[in-house]
Design goal:
alpha/beta; Rossmann fold; Cobalt-precorrin-4 Transmethylase, domain 1; globular
Amino acid sequence: MSDTTSAIAPAKASKVNLRTPDVMERVQAEVESHYRSKLVEAARANGGVLRVGEVTITLAKAFGFCYGVERAIDLAYAAAKVFKGSRIFLLGEIIHNPEVNEQLAQMGITSLRENENGYDLSEVKSDDVVIVPAFGAEVGVMQRLTNIGCQIVDTTCGDVMSVWKRVRQYAREGFTSIIHGKAWHEETKATSSRALGPDGKSHYLVVFNLEETDYVCNYIRHGGDRQQFLKKFKGATSEGFDPDLHLRRVGVANQTTMLRGETEEVQRRISKAIADRDGPNWQQNFRFFDTICGATQERQDALQQMLNEKDTLKMDILIVVGGYNSSNTSHLAEMGEAVLPTYFVKNAEQLESLGKIHHYNQHKKIVEVTTNWLPEGPVTVGITAGASCPNNLIEQTILRVLELKGVPKNELMALLS
């Protein structure tokens, strides 16, 4: 694939300040009209509890849009206003929420999809605008955009850039980055590209779970079949990665939206393997920094608190609302599944009836249908959402649960007034 760039790259577009007071005032009004929920705000003011008839809705103390997501959406909306009349492209999705991305599409922002060769930028010209999503983008993609000379609106989350800083440091010190994350995820791909270092000669390895971590730890301790290792981690290592060479000195980092407990266990197991191999001086060959996103952790902690409240508001079921490709949302669903019936839905439309709900099985990667999901009689329904889910979708989910439980329409309307 080739970009439509000349031998001499165009001059880089001058940086435009999108966050001027007049622009942001208009942006905030539009964002609130699309995503705000008075019902959710009222429930939060009441300690996160809403009681209507025989239904008790309990909301997690932290859920929904985080600062990084809000900033990314604000910048995308601002770009649509400031660059009105220009072609505006978006690398993939601004965040992992289908409703939000559909809203941007309706505003005339065109999504550039990835293929096996990466993003096709062949249609992008120097007078176009390209929005980089909250996950960031790979170094090579950013360089291609710079070469085109287009206006770049970079919405990369600050927490993600903190991880980039760490893996760059590992590379400078001669350490291989072991990244706990999903090798196919936009954020992890962007982080991996920074782990190569400024000269592109450093290395990385992505581990998805504790099973893969244990495999790596065994190799660190005892060595093994190099070709089998590379086959197992195909697509999750840097070019030229050699486990016999590049696991000597390692630094652990992570995709910011992983489960903190799992990332900490990855770190613990790898550090123990290095210690077993290297003896008393093992710490000179190991690095680790806490790079879990604060908002992700807040949402995980808030859900854990809900799951632990057995004597106060014990939930009968849990509904997790968010995009099916959202990493932080999927981990919330995973936490709930371990304790009680949990349904991962993208919106209220998935609650078809009292007897039928469509929900995502992230382990099988399919949407399943469960019958008789909503208990008869008094029921307590817990609701939480990932950092990329707007409040209006949570409101619609609450109203749908109440509707299915027979709450009269006039009472539902009263809740919105």
